Amino acid sequence: MTDEMPGADSTRSDPAADATAVMDLLVGGGIAQILHAVAALHIADHLADGALTADEVAERAGSHAQATYRLLRAASSLGLLSYEGDRRFGLTGRGRLLRDGVPGSLRSLVLVQTGHAHWRLWGHFPEAVRHGASQAREALGADVFEYFARPENAEEAALFSSAMADMSGLVTQGAVAAVDTTDVATVVDVGGAEGQFVLALMAAEPRLHGQVLDLPHVVEGARREAGNRGLSDRFSAVAGDFFTEVPAADLYLLKTVLHDWDDEQCTAILRNCRSAAHDGGRALVVEMIIGDIGKPDFATLSDMGMLAMTNGMERDLDEFDALFAASGWRRDKTYPVGGGYHGMELVAV
Ligand SMILES: C[S@@+](CC[C@H](N)C(=O)[O-])C[C@H]1O[C@@H](n2cnc3c(N)ncnc32)[C@H](O)[C@@H]1O
Q1: Which of 2, 127, 228, 250 could be a cystine partner for 184, CB 3.0 to 4.6 Å?
Q2: How far lies 340's CA from each of 168, 286, 299, 302, in Å?
Q3: In terms of C-beta density within 10 A (0-12 exposed, 13-18 middle, 19 or more buried), how is residue 131 classed?
Q4: Strand partners, 315
Q5: Cα angle at 311 between 313 and 242, to 5 degrees?
Q6: What ipTM score was computed for the predicted complex, to two decimals?
Q7: Among this protein's residues, is 46 annotated catalytic?
Q8: In 3D, which of 228, 155, 223, 233 has the Cα closest to residue 193?
Q9: What is this structure's pTM?
Q10: Ligand 1 centre from 302 Cα, in Å?
Q11: What's the whole-number mean pLDDT along residues 117-140?
């Protein structure tokens, strides 16, 4: 330990401030469930037209009046709601992000990340660290994608796809603006969920034809989304397995797919893309990139989520380059695309 590391020298630390700091970290799980309750009870939707009293919110939400008042009070202390006096609460900018079906909404993401599958997996997190692997089989009886594919989990799976779509909004604009589509006519969004990324690219470039490759229970959502955007004539969705085969294309999009898998599995996915690509073909990988250790870095926290949920991980640039080199790709350009994500453009070698 060096003198430069804050708190490294316990003789100089402030025990009371340190205890408060640790307790602030500890309450993070409870805060996540406060977000869950606000989202699940549609509190932000009830307040969309103006401030209401806690009793009025409880009546609309079908929830207990005093418990709802306490929830709204806590949410206002977190900056999700404003307090207008006399037990009346209004929406803040942050709270508005918990509305259902509005542009930029994070409601589905909140619901899925605080819902059954994710929460159970966090409950097994110390075991995941002990064994170096997600405890999904112990917690859910299946890996997370098998779990979502089960008919009885269809509602949670739909929420997961829509959460991915909500998150996509944060980065697709930046990626669409930055990616080089010179000489590109066909694009496959590998593990593309509802196709937010490829559809945004197609909307920006009317000559592009796009496809989503995803699991059978997911692709119908992508077809529906293409229809909603009036892009069905240039779009198709393929139900398949990216470990088996990937359709041919000029450009592959892999957005937050590699972080779900270990190195061997990532190499298999990237090799399948390389086999289907022509020489000089391109791919765009969008992921968080882990930066300098010891500095605040959201990617390292997301990495813990990947350990809890999947076989995957967040990676630093050297780790990405090793994957690309092992699978017939070379990284050509790297740029931030917003929301803490980076685009890494690859060329087939
Ligand atoms: C983390 S999500 C990313 C979705 C999308 N690319 C995005 O960024 O919004 C991973 C996606 O991979 C899909 N997936 C998982 N296993 C797959 C497989 N073996 N073959 C094809 N898709 C798969 C999932 O269904 C899910 O849609």
Answers
A1: 250
A2: 12, 10, 8, 11
A3: exposed
A4: 289
A5: 100
A6: 0.99
A7: no
A8: 223
A9: 0.89
A10: 17
A11: 96
